[in-house]
Give the backbone structure.
Amino acid sequence: MQGNLPPEAQEKIEELQDLQETAQQVAQQKQQAETTLQESKTALETLDDVDEETVMYREVGELLVETDYAEAYEDLEEKVDSLEVRTETLRKQEERVQTQFEKLQEELQQMLQGGGGPMGPGGPGAGA
């Protein structure tokens, strides 16, 4: 079917496919960041209920290393702040990709309907 399409339309279809892949990747990254953010917030809330003198350990690669309450709390707060920024950035990126996708889809639809329309000259049927 794509063999019958004008080269401009084929190009737009390829762009749409690329954008769709990008959207899926961004959505997956955002989901992972949101999950990690929620886990970190839960850990931070749990620390609120822990006595500051309690011996704690943190995971460093494959090891558990002793840490103190203040350091654990501060590290978790920093992680939460960082993840909040990351999820917001990914949310905005997801919106931009979706907007680009919809615009490109609309351009392709106009192109395939033979209009070219107000998008400018050069579309199929232009000058015919």
